[in-house]
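ok trying this again, last paste got cut off
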Amino acid sequence: MIICAADEKIQQLAKKLGVQVPASPPDVQKQELTELAALQGSAFDAAYARKIGVDAHQDAVSLFRDASENAKHDDVKAFATQTLPTLQKHLEMAKAMAAAVGK
């Protein structure tokens, strides 16, 4: 797991709001990681770029966009608004990676 400033901020926000952040990914994501681990070479590269790169970032951008517009708690809305541009940049980078490995 990669720990970044956004992870630390969301942990602090969750603690402030009394929300328990899951310690591990949901079962669906664990299954996807297991499937990825079984792949090798260009098949792994393409699947990783699509699932972890593009698909995951599209989901994150959608969730953060919604939270930045509709969250009821001001701190949640501010966090989503602050984090969204970085996620959008990561999505564009993921799309470029997926295009590169798809060649």
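PB: full thing came through this time. The mean pLDDT is 92.
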